Model the fold of this input.
Amino acid sequence: MPPKRKNDVAVKVEDVGMEVDAEIDSGSEDEARRRAKNRRAKPQRKAKQPSEDEEDEDEDETPRRKGRRKKTKARAKDDDEDDDDEDNRSVKSKTSKASRKKAPKDNEEDSEGEGDKKKRGKTVSKKEKEQQNKEKKGNVKGKAGQSKGGEKDKKKKNGSSSSSSGSDDESLSEGEMEALKEQVEEKKKLVATLRNKPWRMKRRLDVLKEAQDFVEKFEGALGKGKGRRLYAFKVMMAKKFIKFKRDFENFKTACIPWERKIKDVESHFGSSVASYFIFLRWMYGLNMVLFGLMFGLVILPEVLMGLPYGTIARKTVPRAEQDTAMDYSVLFDFEGYCKYSILFYGFYNNEKQIGLLKFRLPLSYLLVGVGIFGYSLMVVIRTMARNANEGGDGADEGDFTFSWKMFTSWDYLIGNPETADNKYASITTSFKESIVDEQENQKDENIHLRRFLRVLANFLILCCLGGSGYLIYFVVKRSQDFADMDNADLSWFEKNEVEFVMSLLGLVCPPLFETIAELEDYHPRIALKWQLARIFALFLGNLYTFLFALFDEVNEKLEREKIIKNETELALAHYYANYSSFYNTTDVPPPNVHPADAIRGPCWETGVGIEFVKLIVSDVQVSYLTILIGDFLRAVIVRFLNYCWCWDLEAGFPSYGEFDISGNVLGLIFNQGMIWMGAFYAPGLVGVNLLRLLSSMYYQCWAVMSCNVPHERVFKASRSNNFYMGLLLLVLFLSLLPVVYTIMTLSPSFDCGPFSGQEKMYDVVMQAIDQDLPAFIGNIFTYATNPGLIIPGVLLMVLALYYLNAVSEGYQQANTDLKKKMQAARDEEKNRRNNKDSTNQVMKDLEDLLPNKSLIPRPIEEEPPLDEIKVEKVSKPTKTKPGSSGNGVNLQKEVSLAAPNPRGPVTHGPGPRGGPPLNTRGPQPGPARGRGRGGHPRR
Amino acid sequence: MGNKQTIFTAEQLDAYQVGSLCFVINTSSLFILIQKLFYRYRDLAPQLVPLDYTNHPDVKLPYELIGSMPELKDNPFRQRIAEVFSEDGEGNMTLDDFLDMFSVLSEMAPRDLKAYYAFKIYDFNSDDFICKSDLEKTLNKLTRNELTDDEVRMVCEKVIDEADLDNDGRLSLEDFQHMIVRAPEFLSRRKPNNITYILIWF
Done:
């Protein structure tokens, strides 16, 4: 036996050829399956070379073993059929049998190497089995699978070393040797799995010591081969990688602006309040981009390359206004120097190309104005689509909402008291949120009364909306009358009546709606949506009255402008005629008029821009003052006057304010609508808005944290902010209309702004296409705008829309069906357990086996494991506890989890459970396997 | 490497490696790690812990010291953690227990193991089942008694209702594992810091 061992790999390779055509018996199918499995396992292995060797060996070895088995029919058949049933006993007996068999064979055949090889083949195949077995347990996954390679490599070495040691004491019989080898294997396995055992360190160490001593005694020192080092390296790299990923995640989180602030708010006020701040942050991001576009492509070029202030009429304050142009009250109304500044449309020159770069400012101005809408539209829709993917309306899917909250919400990394406080608050809040949801689910009540109340509430609210609409209409009409009168005769109230009424409505109506909405008794999340929709309707009325008033003003200005334009032209014509007749020359120099004295039109675009800026500024003032008075002052009074007051202010009437989510969200949305509309006429507006958002982020965060109390019923926000986004999209669309209307139909002022002198604003584009682009592009545009092309295009899009809609509906349907099925499966499983668990254990086990049986029929082997195989025995009971048979994946997970916890509650004896067949069964569905990280790295 | 030899024998190190700190395979980093942990342990009570561990001295640190570690001091379950990992069940720890704790709570520990220990931690009365009183205790520790009795009762009932598969009114280890492997944090490793029982102390 001994001498040839060292180079038996070589021998083996030769054997391949010789032995491949050994007998192929009835079990070949099983064999194929097993091999396939091996192959699957292969990529996981670390030490490629050695394991491949073994693989080859195994493959040509197995038929031979089969052949041998054929001779010992009955037994072998069993083994073959439950191909992976790693009942150690059977393996053992098999091996000893094999060795017994081999002894004579050895004598017969003169090639000792081959004999040895057979034996080794045996052990190897056993290892294969072991591996399959382990995989079944699910423990082995990635790491263990990897370790296996190294292990094998080692084993091989050990194999050779042990065999050489075997040669030393030939006194041992072959059978004994095999038995010993088995034991050594066992011990090694024990060592490998030790890490996953939830034992005390001491016990672990003891067991380890024992096992190692044993192994060492009979096998010599454990080798440290190449594969092992490679494995170590890979593990180290894996760990480094995980750490890096974590650091990177942390870094990413740290890079998100205000994340901590928002988390703070969220932990104390719930996700619904936090959703407002998240929305605000998102809005800030959007406005940053808009500002970048506006600033980079319009404002900066004009500042750097355009004419400076005071050079031409549109860039100069008129003589009449110059005295008061720097007064604070004038500036505050955005008149005076403000009006003739870079902030507004009128300041921009209509020179076609400016500066060294020949920058086409008018074209750029128009494209940026339109591009802002395009970009916003794109971003909003993309965000909505992405949110829709994440889906959910806030209610947790999943069956374990409370359990997860209970057991997985604490963050064990928390290491400072402040964070811990926040965490406590946030856990409490999230529990409260879930409790509200749950209570809502359990509520059942008089449905007729509820319906009646809801209808009534809607009726009342419609009345309110109608009333406020009429009020606005009335006031706007009145203000138009006032506009005809002399400005000096009007009182301050009459001048600002419209704004005043609108602000008043904005203050009074939302709380009124909220009060009425209490009749409806919706879930707070749904109530919030209703509230949002109603206030939205109210604000929409305000917005459109404002717009109509604006259009009246614009039309009137256009009229005036026409007159002034005619007058100017007439005056110029007079001047030219006089000049040429006086000096008798046709070469007339332009009239030398100081820009401040030039005749100028009303420049309606700047007027509109000023209106918007004023609106935004007053909005900021109002909202900040509301916070200051309504929240801060109230909180101060409640807090400090409480010491000397006749009733409890904190608990009683005024109490502290709650954060008004709906009002703030809508304020933000409408503010953005104003920005979109106004940005075209006042490029500086985006910058103003940026400041506003920035300041309100800090201001409101502070106000919330210091002056407000959480809502009485803290509720979970819907996970996607899509309702907010939907409203925003609506507002975007609404604000797109007037701007596009003015661009397409109204003619720009003749003496101010980048489009002065054009018939229509979009003419700059036409000019650019005609003059500066090659002719064929112009042709393409002509074709593209042909109705014959556009109509089919629209038709096609409509069809695509229809198709996609149908598809998505189909998916949705499938989704809900699947959800229902899952729920049903879960209920069924639960019921089954309830009914069966205590009654008939045997029946239950049989049932557990059924689905597997239908896959691969094979006999069930139920022999209690031998005493010496401790590991196997200990881990069995938990492994085989009630597997959920109806559901392959579940079964997998459970089994994989339970395996390494031998100390789990052992409620059933190991024997009669029929353990081995259940979880050591053949190819079970794989998906759940990839997960278990715990391996059995072996030495 | 000289001074580590004075703390542990090579065999001890080897044993630790196989026995517990399995997740570090590389020998040299193991030295560093064990050394680091040993000094952490020793720093808690320099006067109690000898520098030489070669002859297995019998030293235990009281819970007061263990619980004051920065990793534990803000944890609502610190007492339970110490109790679970200590051999005497009172929170007094030997070095072995200490290493045990860190290895189980390390990032690289297999999650099955973590789930098992999480179960132990939440099982306040150590009867191998998480029953209602355990749940109430857990909840009160998590929320600092902010919830009303009604709410607490409701949440506990919900938890039992959700996770109890065999309807015995309490959660066995199996129920617990069945529930916990489905936790989103458990499945996707995207947010490691939210996993209850994956503590990353290394």
Q: What stands out?
A: Strands of chain A lie at 657-658, 708-709. The CA atoms of residues 776 and 782 of chain A lie 10 Å apart. Chain A touches chain B through 81 residues (CB under 8 Å).
